[in-house]
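Appendix B: complex inputs.
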Amino acid sequence: MDFLKNWAVNIVILTVFVALLEIILPSSTMKKYIRVIIGFLIIIVIINPFIKLFDNYIKIEKEVFANLTKGGEFDKKTKSSFISENNERILKLYKQNLKRSIEETLRKRTKYITEVIEIDIIENRKKENYGYIREIKLLVKEKNNEPYVDKNDNHIKVNQIDEVKISIGDSKKSNKKADEVKLNSILNVLTDSYSIPKEKIYIYMSDE
Amino acid sequence: MEIIQVVGIGIIATVLAILLKQQKPEMAIHISIVTGLIIFLFVVTKLKYVVDFLSSLADRINIDFIYFSTILKVIGIAYIAEFGAQVSRDAGEEAIASKIELAGKILIMVLAIPIMTALIDLIVKIMS
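Resulting structure:
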């Protein structure tokens, strides 16, 4: 009984639908053609339950799709544009994931957090080294000593405070040296885990 | 009251076109084309509302969305072809207008063919 009800509802809604369509139809020679197609639609709606009655395996949607792919040959241009769009999306996602992973490793294995990452990768699909990192620029900042809160853990972990060293002498020079050491640690981590050559990595320290 | 705006634009353009027709007939054609475009664009934005309602209605029918989008595409093609044909007809290019209409008809038929062949296949299957 349920399918009868469905059928009736379908026919009623379709009738309303067609009545509305008739209003917005342009009043010209085109009207005939649209009416033919609407007629097909009505036939399909009316015939639908009978198809189920005779054969469970016929699906009209499938038939239309099959015929659509046959006629789809002339749509090559849209297909190629679709592929290029897709490729772009893949590239974007790849870059995003790479950035996130670099951020994560640096946060875990060094004392720095990254503020800005710029990655330049080889985007030419035809090249053999597609996806290789051409150049990477980092803006890093020293990790604040503010407690790092794990999202899954309500306890607050207090990071150990580094020993405070006071040195007398040419403070500027030692600072520079210290910076170099720090940068080297980042470089090492990056080359270790991503096997990026050192000369392709540019690191800038944030002043804050 | 959009209808007043549309009719206002139409009447002004008509008067201008008539006045200009004696002195410069080619300007009259320009005016009619531009007016047609303005009114067309004006209404096309409103049409979105109607289309949304129709799509909500189509969602309720247990029928694939593909039919609905086909019909909407057909109506869109019909409108655009009609518009182009009328503009060319206004400019006195009857031949171009009929070619535009022909193109519209062919494109509509191309869209309708999948539904048609599917229907025929189904009927043949049921009969056999």
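Chain A has a mean pLDDT of 74.
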